[in-house]
Amino acid sequence: MANVPHATDSTPSEDLPFAAGPLRGLAKLTLALAAVALVLLALVEAWQVFTRYVLDAPAGWTEPVAVLLLKIALLAGAAVGVRNETHFRFALGMQAASPAWRRRLRATALLAAGAIGVVFAGWGASLMIAAWPVKAAGADLSSGLYYLPFVVGGALFALFALERVLFDSAH
Fold this sequence. Notes:
68% helix, 0% strand
């Protein structure tokens, strides 16, 4: 099998997934949140199948709760991916670049991921505020709650990207 470039090939962070840095603990907590959300998602889906096909009385709350848990898992996991630099990028271009250009390209990729996080957080907050008074269908939750993972996840994208740029440039 061919040697495929990995995040550690172009980054100084050899201790993935929890590279050194001031936000290491927050990254671990964020990844734990994603894992808990995935476990809860599996349990909610199992309950949905059981109530629908065994009890023949489907629970109406399972689908909206599953969607919320999926968003939490996705955005928390993606935020840690930004910190670990396992986000989408063009690794071959990084490999072909000189070390000086590699640092610039890496910083540019991190800043782009951070900017996307700021957009997620901003638009997510706007949508969350607008939808907060509306009750979600099937569950006793605010519809605005479905946008909270975008707010928190986007803020974490930006925070983790900024940490990597600042911490790694200082070391």
